[in-house]
Amino acid sequence: MRSSNPVFSRRGFSRDNGMAGFNAQPQAGGAAVATNPYAQGTGNPYATNPYAPTDPQVAGGGPQAPAGAGVMTIDDVVSRTAMTLGTVVLTAVLAWITLPVDQDALGKSYGIAIGAALVAFVLAMVQSFKAKPVPALILAYAAFEGVFLGVISSAVSTYISPGVVVQAVLGTMAVFAGVLIAYKMRWIRVTRRFYGFVMAAAIGFMLLMAVNLLFAVFGGGDGLGFRSGGLGILFGVLGIVLGACFLALDFKQVEDGVTYGAPRREAWFAAFGLTMTLVWIYLEMLRVLSIIQGND
After folding, report:
1. 189: how many CB neighbours lie within 10 A of its CB?
2. Which DSSP state fits 29?
3. What is d(CA 34, CA 277) in angstroms, rounded to the nearest whole number?
4. Contacts of range 79-85, beta carbons closer than 8 Å, 24 or more positions apart
5. Which of 9, 63, 244, 267 is deepest in the core (most CB within 10 A)?
6. Distances in Å between the alpha carbon of 157 and those of 51, 167, 265, 287, 296?
7. β-strand partners of 191
């Protein structure tokens, strides 16, 4: 499947136009068997992998990859994600310490933060359009994203509430854990309809934020009011819910990659996507908490 983050164009484990396991074909006797675009001879980008299961929807449907066979595992995803998120956290802490946000240096620090955010965006887009993950590119994205988060978090903590950053981090972790549990328990089912709904909602959300930004730039103030007050809280919560939906898509992407025998390097795609989603959720969580505590 092609799982997307707010960047939208990030490549998934599948390079075809289908979504693994989403097409159920009725068979003789009334049973529905999922047809997989990953199956041998049906556009599977890993068809030459001797360890790829021939039919992952059927128990024991194919040989499983032994340890060290060069296919992606959950451990690979965890280790790459830890490296990517660790880079974000490390550079965020360094930016917090070295880029002061007092009145004299606030403008300069903000300028560096915005510059880092733009560089991170460009790097993310470059990686999104590459067919293969480039670890150095992904880690560079994480480093610049961390600089941006460090300055913004420091400013919010200084001028709004000293404890808001910790609350936002805990909130992000809670959303991640909640979606993971819901996904593992199959309370959330990632279907084609779910995918389409999330993508439509994401496009609509981003367009509204873009319009609000244009009004803010040319009209002054908060634009249409999507970043403050009750409306700001509402749209912040919607942003968090949208991020949670993207987490479910990311989990499905990881599950498909492991199931269908994706090459080990594809774990970097998973780390890239999970990092972008968690950054999205953290920023929306920080915004909601800032609005709430700023109104107290």
Report:
1. 11
2. G
3. 28
4. 79/267, 80/135, 80/267, 80/268, 80/270, 80/271, 81/270, 81/271, 81/274, 81/275, 83/139, 83/271, 84/138, 84/139, 84/142, 84/271, 84/272, 84/274, 84/275, 85/142, 85/271, 85/274, 85/275, 85/278
5. 267
6. 50, 11, 38, 12, 15
7. none
Q: Can you tell me which residue has the tokens 């499905």?
A: 252
Assign 34 to helix, strand or coil. strand
Q: Per-residue confidence of the chain (296 residues) as pLDDT tens digits?
A: 444 444 333 444 444 434 443 333 333 333 333 333 333 334 444 444 444 444 444 334 444 444 445 889 999 999 999 999 999 999 999 999 999 888 887 888 889 999 999 999 999 999 989 888 999 999 999 999 999 999 999 999 988 888 899 999 999 999 999 999 999 999 999 989 999 999 998 898 888 877 877 766 666 556 566 666 777 788 889 999 999 999 999 999 999 989 888 899 999 999 999 999 999 999 999 999 988 886 65
Closest CA to 171 of 98, 92, 239, 119: 239
d(CA 140, CA 135): 8
Tokens found for residue 199 = 């993508």
Residue 242 structure tokens: 């949208």
Its sign, for the CA torsion 274, 198, 194, 242, is positive
**Cα distances (Å, whole numbers) of residue 170 to 43, 81, 152, 247, 253:** 42, 18, 17, 16, 25
The Cα–Cα gap between 144 and 40 comes to 40
State the CB neighbour count (10 A cutoff) for residue 191.
14
Residue whose entry in the numeric block shows the structure tokens 């164009």: 9
